[in-house]
């Protein structure tokens, strides 16, 4: 279990770092899936099997929503996947923007969305285990990385200045595209509590010191602010070596 713990934490860390330097919309979402798989394996390595399954279910719902929203954006932006050619898409896709941000916030573990119920439970139960400070610190860092690449994706796609991509077609009038997105965004709102009531017969009792109890929320909040203030850095060349190394996914495909 110690080996699985180490591999899962390094998987979470690697995919989080690589996603921060990635510009391909689908790759960012795929890397975040890899990160969450690391989270599930991390949960299994602690012996929390039911919790890993619960995270699998909630994550499946909002990750499906993320991929569908990405599909609508790619279709609308003239079949480009490069988020540098996006920017200001919230004006063209108001509904998809809302749904995608909902899925992103759920992925980050923002309170009372679907992802929060499983993610926060894994984090708090992991804090109860005596694995040592390294494991806890890496877990919180990986939690922060999730927020970092999610905020970056949202900023570059919806908030930042227009990147000069292809002309945007009107996708939101096509109900076969937007219908599933709306249904899934509803599930990513309510599936967390519903699945937790179905999965766990009794509430989980967790005793933690205050600083650990607030740890997850603190890291999510701080990394959100950090990424919003660092938006200008995404285009700088100071990170050349790091971004090349990350872009090649730490040479693992090789």
TrEMBL record:
Membrane topology classification: Multi-pass membrane protein
Transmembrane region(s): 6-25, 37-54, 60-79, 91-117, 129-151, 177-198, 204-228
NADH:quinone oxidoreductase/Mrp antiporter transmembrane domain span: 3-140
Matches recorded under InterPro entries: NADH_DH_su5_C (IPR010934), ND/Mrp_TM (IPR001750), NU5C-like (IPR003945)
All copies of domain NADH dehydrogenase subunit 5 C-terminal, residue ranges: 149-253
EC number: 7.1.1.2
Keywords: Electron transport, Membrane, Mitochondrion, Mitochondrion inner membrane, NAD, Respiratory chain, Translocase, Transmembrane, Transmembrane helix, Transport, Ubiquinone
Any one GO CC term of the record: mitochondrial inner membrane
Main location: mitochondrion
Gene Ontology BP term (one): ATP synthesis coupled electron transport
GO molecular function list: NADH dehydrogenase (ubiquinone) activity; NADH dehydrogenase activity
Reactions catalysed, as given in the entry: a ubiquinone + NADH + 5 H(+)(in) = a ubiquinol + NAD(+) + 4 H(+)(out)
Subcellular location: Mitochondrion inner membrane
Reported function: Core subunit of the mitochondrial membrane respiratory chain NADH dehydrogenase (Complex I) that is believed to belong to the minimal assembly required for catalysis. Complex I functions in the transfer of electrons from NADH to the respiratory chain. The immediate electron acceptor for the enzyme is believed to be ubiquinone.
Descriptive protein name: NADH-ubiquinone oxidoreductase chain 5
Gene name for this UniProt entry: ND5
């Amino acid at each position: 279990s110690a080996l699985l713990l180490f591999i899962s934490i390094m998987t979470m860390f690697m995919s989080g770092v690589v996603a921060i330097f990635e510009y391909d919309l689908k790759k960012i979402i795929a890397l975040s899936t890899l990160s969450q798989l690391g989270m599930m394996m991390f949960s299994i390595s602690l012996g929390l099997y039911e919790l890993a399954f619960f995270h699998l279910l909630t994550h499946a719902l909002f990750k499906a929503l993320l991929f569908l929203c990405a599909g609508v954006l790619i279709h609308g932006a003239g079949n480009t996947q490069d988020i540098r050619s996006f920017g200001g898409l919230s004006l063209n896709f108001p509904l998809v923007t809302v749904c995608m941000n909902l899925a992103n916030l759920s992925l980050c573990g923002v309170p009372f969305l679907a992802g929060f119920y499983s993610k926060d439970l894994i984090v708090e139960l992991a804090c109860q285990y005596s694995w040592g400070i390294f494991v806890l610190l890496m877990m919180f860092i990986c939690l922060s990385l999730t927020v970092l690449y999610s905020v970056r994706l949202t900023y570059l796609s919806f908030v930042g200045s227009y990147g000069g991509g292809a002309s945007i077609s009107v996708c939101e009038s096509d109900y076969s595209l937007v219908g599933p997105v709306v249904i899934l965004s509803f599930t990513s709102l309510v599936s967390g509590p519903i699945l937790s009531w179905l999965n766990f017969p009794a509430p989980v009792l967790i005793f933690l010191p205050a600083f650990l109890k607030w740890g997850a929320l603190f890291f999510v909040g701080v990394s959100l602010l950090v990424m919003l203030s660092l938006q200008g850095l995404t285009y700088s060349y100071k990170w050349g070596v790091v971004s090349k190394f990350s872009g090649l996914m730490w040479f693992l495909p090789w």
